[in-house]
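thread: overnight batch results

M.L. [08:02]
morning all. the overnight job finished for the chain we discussed friday. pasting input first so we're all looking at the same thing
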Amino acid sequence: MSINGDSYSDGLTWNTSIDNMLARWCDQAKCFEWMHAKSYSYYNKKAKYIMIISNILTAFSGLSNVITGGVTTSGFKLAWIFGSISIIISLTNILQEKLAYAQLAVNFSQYSNSWGTIHRKIEELLSMPQNSRIHCGTFLKYIKQDINMVSTAGNSIIPEHIKQECYIKFSSIPDFDVPDICGQIEHTQIYINDKPSIINTI
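M.L. [08:03]
and the structure it wrote out:
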């Protein structure tokens, strides 16, 4: 369903088709929240590993330079070895900066939180009777804006192996709607009229 600006009619009301659509969106939001949380953990570990290695090499290089000073063995200065370590440290820092693991981890954490907020909003609304909810068109307009905002920037950078893990984890749940990007192409849903047709027998 396309939701753009104020395209919804004031007469749009809650019905089974819209409830089913929101339930699918809620399932997918849970998947995206999980994938972004996994991606955060994945890149946060990488960032920490690089930082730990860099710090260890820095400390080792500094301590070794102090200990060995200008010691020379058969014309070979030990300081050259530790100079090489300093170069490796610089390369490690450059690698960290270029790969931006730490920044990616922060971004994925934010995306995960946003998807969590979206699925909780939908769950809360669907748990209420239709006649107790806010206006249908208003809710759909704003929840779709939230979805578009977080999915446009975030979903394309999820690592492929995490998408596959998501499909394996959630596809076995009966009637659970896994997002298309995880490898499942869903059947197109159509509007279902809640009210039965009245047949004129006269």
